[in-house]
Amino acid sequence: MALGVNPGLFLNNPSSFRPEEAGYRPAILGTIQLIGGVILIIVPLGISAATYLELFADRTRWYNRIIELNIQNLAGVPSIVFGILGLAFIVRGIFDLGFVVAAGSMTVAILVLPTVILASREAIRAVPSSLLDGALALGATRLQAVRKMVLPAAAPGMLTGVILAVARAIGEAAPLLLVGAATFVTFDPNFWDGGYSALPVMIYSYAGRPQEEFHVLAAAGVLVMLVVLFFINSIAVWLRARFERTW
Amino acid sequence: MSSSIQGARSRSEKNSLRAPSPRIGEKIVISLLFLASAISVGVTIAIVISLFAPLPGFFDYVSPWEFLTGTLWAPSFLDSSFGVLPLVAGTLQVVFYALLIGVPLGLGAAIYLSEYASTRVRKTIKPILEVLEGLPTVATGLFAVFWFKPLIQELTPWLEWTSPFSIGVAGITVGIIIIPLIASVSDDAMRSVPVALREGAYALGASKMRVAVKVVLPAAISGIVASFVLGASRAIGETMVVLLVAGGGSPQLKIGFTEPAGAMTAFIASRATGEIATGTIDYYSIFAVGSLLFVMTLTMNMIAIFFVSKFREVYD
Amino acid sequence: MEQAAKNEVFSLKDMSVHYGSSLAVDSVNLPIYENEITALIGPSGCGKSTVLRSLNRMNDLIPSAKVGGEVLYHGQDMYGSDVDPVQVRKVIGMVFQKPNPFPKSIYDNIAFGPQTLGMKGNMDEIVEGALKQAALWDDVKDRLKDNAFGMSGGQQQRLCIARAIAVKPDVILMDEPCSALDPISTFKIEDLMMELKKDYTIVIVTHNMQQAARVADRTAFFTVDTSRGEGSRVGTLVEHDETTKIFSNPSDERTLDYVTGKFG
Description:
Low-confidence stretches of chain B: 1-10
CATH architecture of chain B: Orthogonal Bundle
Order of helices and strands of chain A: HHHHHHHHHH
Strand content of chain B: under 5%
Helix content of chain A: 55-70%
Largest sheet of chain B: 2 strands, antiparallel
Number of helices of chain A: 10
Oligomer: heterotrimer
CATH topology of chain B: MetI-like fold
CATH architecture of chain A: Orthogonal Bundle
Number of domains of chain B: 1
Radius of gyration of chain B: 27 Å
Distance between the termini of chain B: 59 Å
Helix content of chain B: over 70%
CATH class of chain A: Mainly Alpha
CATH superfamily of chain B: MetI-like
Mean pLDDT of chain A: 88
Number of helices of chain B: 14
Number of strands of chain A: 0
Largest interface: A-B, 67 and 66 residues
Strand order of the largest sheet of chain B: 1-2
Distance between the termini of chain A: 52 Å
CATH class of chain B: Mainly Alpha
Mean pLDDT of chain B: 88
CATH topology of chain A: MetI-like fold
């Protein structure tokens, strides 16, 4: 039995009337660039914020309580609202980037940032306080103790959080509809310039076409995405099991 | 005598408790960490500004009263009308069907996980729930369109299936999506109920089911309510499933399982695709609907956070 | 008479600790002398660990904790505004109840302190010196690169002592260092303490009265004062004296009841 995958699925550009020749090439490249940008933003910001909130913030201060409440809240804001934010502030408004991959990256990064922060905080909380105490008792400053002892111990957990956030970012379609991930891009994307597409948006677009063949194409796209996500999530689960430590 | 004074002096130098340097570098790094966490507040402010700033422009065309109480949503008609109730009705129907499915199944899963499952089973299921929670909804939506809706259609031949779209199927699909969320938040709540409370009931000879329902559920109730509220909030905000399964909807206010219906999120997503011209009423309407959506979910999140914190107060 | 000649490392004067609004320890007056082992004993909740943790400002880690009265270290007010808690912990080391080695190699466990503090000298020599002083060198010299978690509990605790010594402190505080260990490991650590007091001043909190009797030069007995109204449990210092006196002929009846096992 021939279970062949037509390489055109990955290599071809989209086509509006010839489903047998239509593919996901620009969408896949767009998603790869988009996710690259997301990682560059969420790793430093997410880990810094979690470190501050978990290890430095004095919880009796009103501004720290506001930040906490605010992050909890952001985690529950619908993704489409982040799309509106991206449209008004990043595509237009202050950043004025236009409909480019960078705008998509920033929007999706802001969307998944609360997830990264919450997961990283949990990873830090899982590190026993005796580690911090031990370092402090030797005369290390708090920052030294955190940097050399707590963060390395929390790193696998934080990495798991980042990976789960990336998995979420890959499948996010709604906000991208607003920040310009167009469905009919027949050229490879450039991070700062020109139009772009993304895998979930392309899938959505194919699904909406009347011809049956496009629906098959959409299903194939979903399959590709799910395989990628399965792979990524497996890494996260493996990491967690591998480094899980009972202190 | 003098030597003992000298000894004291050298000791006091060696054992000085003063900081050897002001550690300015550290203070800078900590300020940067603070800034990283403060960015989230900036994001919220930016969301509020981006949503609310265009509202005056919108309300130049449509009065707030007309927007909130009007029953005809027809932005692209020649004689356009901007009554948001048809969209709100669509959203509320999604929430209704989603909770109908998500609450019993999610709570059931939570009871199983916290009261019956072995540690090994829990350790397997929890990460799976986490992964399911993050599945792309465009995939779930397609699954519903191509497979789930025909199935339901076959199982319910007595319903009038005239449209390719159905708000009911959309709601049920969203319900499936929120099961992991409700299960994991409720499970956390039920597991933090002290063991002593359970043991007291077991000591009186109560069965496992009885203990779960009569002791653990009431004790964890505010955490469980929080999970329902979070589930509802997630259902309100769900976009892709509603867009794919319920369609664009009709401009009139309609209620019914098999009807196509618009929802707030789906409207925003469908309207904003491509290059929409700034300053037109079309453009403004996105922000008006978005503001309403934001206010609704914000309220529900606050309620959920309140319930969770109430729960923590009791048991932490 | 002899004591007057001794250097007071710590002088606690009317010292108290609050956690939030509740008083945990009240009016402690206690001198701690150089190159001696001072034991703090008493029933659970009597505040002995709280007092110990205020001697190197580890209490600062609990935001609601507040120290009143005076804690003098070589005459300096330890809670003065010009005092840096980090510097305090550099000079006054601490060993915890549960051995808490870092999840690193044996070598790195010792080297962490000196490296972090930027101490000069050959690191290999510093590590070797600290391990030797902690009587651990012969046990581990062939596996310095192994993870510290592979050691026995007693060895881990001695590693923690070696780690504290490596930064050359003036005082070592020990918070029930043997409570998680078997008797043989406990004796080894007690031997080590007797050895270390030649170079360091040691303050130890212990639940084990025999341990206090065996190692301590001076003993301070704390108890819980419940007489101050409904539900209040305030730790107070009953008396302090030479260990032999506390265990043979204490001045306070409550001390006698405790050391003879009538309560606690």
